[in-house]
Design goal:
With 526 residues, the chain is of the alpha/beta class. It contains 17 helices and 15 strands. The protein has a nine-stranded mixed beta sheet. α9 runs antiparallel to α17. The N terminus is likely disordered.
């Protein structure tokens, strides 16, 4: 699923029921009432084959992991779908009206998924769609009876049957929830980006190292694909020679969520003759300001979590939080975990020594409409230094059309080597060498890295059960996240920063060190 639907929480409706003092929804949604009127009920697709999803065969109830989902109105709901073959024992969200509608849409789409399955032309496509059909039917049967909560702290305190948690809230809540769960010995799966700040990423990595029995995973699902391993094998085989230059780009935030906008608030009205940028932004801030009552059932204070107190506005929730400094880390935090992942892994980049971000206007509240960030990585053993350039907001590296990559404007990565180039799409998809003659002459490189036969989520489950190693554990994911967040730090600093990674310190601009961490609101801890 596209990451444009990650978390969130929206209007709460009658189906959510009243919220009790302990943070649990007082009235559970009847499964019969929930599915009534959906395409699922009409098609009768409620019988699930006995075999389990992900190609692992039937799983006895005693072998299933007890999982809680936290933040399940968007991408978290898709994570629950992938994990439907396990025991989903609890769901937690601050806005059950929005969440129920999201699951209704998921279940109502089953008929279309079945139709796509009927039209599927390849075995791989049929297998993927068949698994989705079966998972959707399975989750629809469970959904109405799963225990509900609104406050993750009370859920973890009161519900003792939870083995593992999946966290898909806004970015600013990831670290405090994950840290709490890890302290209780729960396995944790955290959607990307791992954290909102570099300090938080370091702390989660430290905690994971100190608690080796806790299995961790970040939700950058492309890292578990065959293509991700093929990229690494091309580089390891020397197919394009030494790599000193990498370009990674995404069209986000454009067409997904707004950035580069003022906070909705009454401000001094500009002179009627003034229509420069500041005047236009002032008019926009005034136009968006107004009395927007918080939707019934939305626990806005829980949404704010450790961040500052900001008055509710529908511009922030659901989903648009990603473009605001208070809660998200912009396009690089959203897609960097997919696009920077492959060069970080295949080139063993480590952490950069300097970072510079240039952008369209930035008001320090809403991230810019577009940025370019330059990361300089030092030599690693026999591997030369690398400059990685990040582009977002539909900015592109030069020459893509000439390389035959004009259809990759939504996102991709280009490696420039001494013998040729390697290019791939978002999530590591479809890697190929350039020019075509090089691709044809090199052929498929030797397979050096074992393939993962399950989904990214089920890889984590298998690791929790001692049957596999997690694909993207915090020991890996924290450094990948740190790279992305250094781009945000350089943006907020407004200057090129020189970085001492060993000591987590910016050496040339002392004031910029404040952006490596955040002070939590009273009542919240890491």
């Amino acid at each position: 699923m596209s990451d444009k639907s990650k978390v969130e929480n929206g209007n709460a409706g009658p189906a959510s029921g009243a919220t009790t003092a302990d943070g649990e929804t007082g009235v559970k949604l009847s499964r019969r009432n929930f599915i009534a009127g959906t395409a699922l009920a009409a098609t009768g697709l409620m019988i699930v084959p006995r075999h389990v999803l992900g190609g692992t065969g039937f799983t006895a109830p005693s072998d299933r992991l007890n999982i809680a989902g936290i933040g399940v109105g968007g991408m978290g709901g898709q994570n629950m779908l992938a994990l439907a073959g396990e025991n989903i024992v609890a769901l937690c969200d601050v806005d059950w009206g929005y969440t129920d509608r999201s699951f209704q849409r998921m279940f109502a789409g089953l008929g279309e998924t079945q139709a796509r399955l009927d039209r599927a032309k390849t075995p791989a496509e049929r297998k993927k769609l068949q698994e989705k059909v079966e998972l959707t039917k399975l989750l629809s049967r469970k959904y109405g009876s799963i225990k509900r909560h609104t406050d993750f702290r009370r859920m973890l305190e009161q519900q003792k049957d939870i083995d593992a948690v999946v966290i898909a809230t806004p970015d600013h809540l990831h670290a405090t929830i994950a840290s709490t769960a890890m302290s209780l010995g729960k396995h944790v799966y955290v959607q990307k980006p791992l954290t909102w700040s570099i300090h938080e990423a370091r702390e989660l990595a430290r905690k994971a190292k100190e608690n080796p029995r806790v299995v961790t995973q970040m939700g950058n699902q492309g890292h578990s694909t065959d293509d991700a391993r093929l990229i690494k094998e091309y580089i390891a085989a020397g197919a394009i020679g030494e790599v000193r230059e990498v370009h990674a780009w995404t069209n986000r935030p454009l067409a997904y969520w707004p950035q580069g906008i003022p906070r909705p608030r009454p401000v001094q009205q500009p002179d009627a003759t003034s229509w420069d940028m500041d005047a236009v932004m002032a008019r926009l801030a005034n136009a968006m300001a107004g009395n927007y009552p918080k939707p019934q059932g939305l626990e806005w204070d829980l949404f704010l979590g450790p961040g500052p107190v900001i008055e509710y506005h529908p511009l922030y929730h659901p989903f648009n939080w990603r473009g605001w400094v208070d809660w998200g880390v912009g396009a690089i935090g959203d897609m960097g975990a997919h696009l920077i992942d492959s060069p970080f892994w295949s080139l063993n980049l480590g952490l950069p020594t300097s970072v510079e971000t240039v952008s369209t206007p930035f008001n320090n509240e809403s991230y810019p409409m577009a940025t370019m960030t330059y990361f300089d990585f030092p030599a690693r053993g026999s591997m030369p230094p690398v400059r990685l350039t990040w582009y977002d907001g539909a900015l592109l590296p030069p020459g893509l059309e000439a390389m035959g990559a004009g259809q990759m404007k939504d996102g991709g990565v280009l490696y420039v080597g001494t013998k040729g180039k390697l290019i791939h799409e978002t999530y590591g998809d479809n890697p190929r060498l350039l020019p075509q003659s090089l691709h044809d002459s090199v052929g498929t490189p030797p397979q050096k890295f074992a393939r993962i036969k399950t989904s990214h989520e089920m890889n984590w489950v298998d690791a929790c059960k001692g049957k596999a190693e997690a694909s993207s554990p915090f020991s890996y994911a924290a450094q990948l996240t740190e790279i992305m967040l250094l781009g945000v730090v350089a943006l907020r600093a407004g200057h090129r920063i020189e970085y001492d990674a060993q000591n987590m310190r910016i050496t040339n601009l002392a004031d910029a060190n404040q952006f490596l961490r955040r002070d939590y609101r009273a009542g919240w801890t890491l």
